[in-house]
Design brief:
About 35% of the residues lie in helices and about 25% in strands. The chain contains 9 helices and 10 strands.
Length: about 270
């Protein structure tokens, strides 16, 4: 089977490039090196996952992309330019949705448009247009009837759906996902995989996911990078040759199981 997305990603120009990333924390004792010489690229429109043991620096790499924690040694490049501060054209979804409790679902989704330029200066003038876009996203994720509900009135899965809408409402070029479904039950988590795949394919953004769930990484990704234990390096890379759009039935195929076993082997070895 040939994955068209993977073929396209292999020939597309890079949206992100991690070049010789090294991260060391100074302490009372010897310095602790967490990341050591990590380099890889993410093509425009590609979905990439980072997997590996806890503490190997996966989330730190995401923070470097956001500009919240610039690289100490080496650099992360966005369209060829080093990231030295916060980027405006990214969306972020975390394990905890962190919806503002005093805002209803619709207003939580609209929040990035109120604070991110160039939308911020046009928000009042274009509020009706922005509201329609938010309502369309909420309808896609099945929350059209919950626009006026507050976070405490929503289930965990509903809050995470709203969080994904909020991360995408300003049409970011980069979508950063840090264990977004880890707190959900197994059935809801699998439902969210399909939902995220649909949203990603509709928006065409570049996605970078950190997860401990190898099935999640395989279902969603074009490429997976396995990081080893500290000091972490990339110990394995796999191109996921599963056709898109992917259904959950793929998770029960022999090929999916073979990919899963291979990933697990390299994580244990790393």
């Amino acid at each position: 089977m040939v994955n068209v997305s993977s073929v396209a990603a292999a020939t597309a120009k890079s949206a992100l490039e991690f070049r010789d990333i090294r991260l060391t924390y100074a302490g009372q004792g010897s310095p602790l090196t967490v990341i050591d010489q990590v380099s890889f690229r993410v093509a425009e429109g590609e979905f990439v996952s980072l997997v590996g043991p806890s503490g190997c620096g996966k989330t730190t790499l995401l923070r470097m992309v956001s500009g919240l924690s610039p690289a100490q040694e080496g650099a992360v490049y966005f369209h060829g330019q080093p990231i030295t501060g916060p980027l405006k054209n990214i969306g972020i979804a975390f394990q905890n949705p962190v919806l503002l409790p005093w805002r209803n679902t619709l207003d939580n989704v609209l929040l990035p448009l109120e604070v991110v330029q160039p939308h911020k200066r046009k928000f009042r003038q274009n509020r009706s247009q922005y509201t329609q876009a938010a309502e369309k996203l909420l309808a896609i994720v099945g929350l059209e009837s919950f626009q006026r509900h507050y976070p405490w009135q929503l289930s965990g899965g509903m809050r995470q759906r709203a969080s994904l809408c909020r991360a995408l409402i300003h049409q970011p070029e980069i979508l950063l996902l840090d264990e977004p479904f880890a707190a959900l039950d197994a059935f809801t988590r699998e439902e969210m995989w399909s939902l995220l795949q649909d949203l990603w394919q509709q928006t065409g953004c570049t996605a970078l996911l950190v997860t401990h769930d190898l099935r999640e990484a395989l279902f969603l990704s074009d490429t997976i990078y396995v990081l080893g234990a500290r000091p972490s390096t990339i110990v394995y890379q796999v191109s996921v040759d599963l056709p898109r759009p992917r259904s959950l039935d793929l998770c029960f195929t022999d090929h999916f199981h073979d990919l899963y076993t291979e990933l697990r082997h390299h994580i244990q070895r790393g």
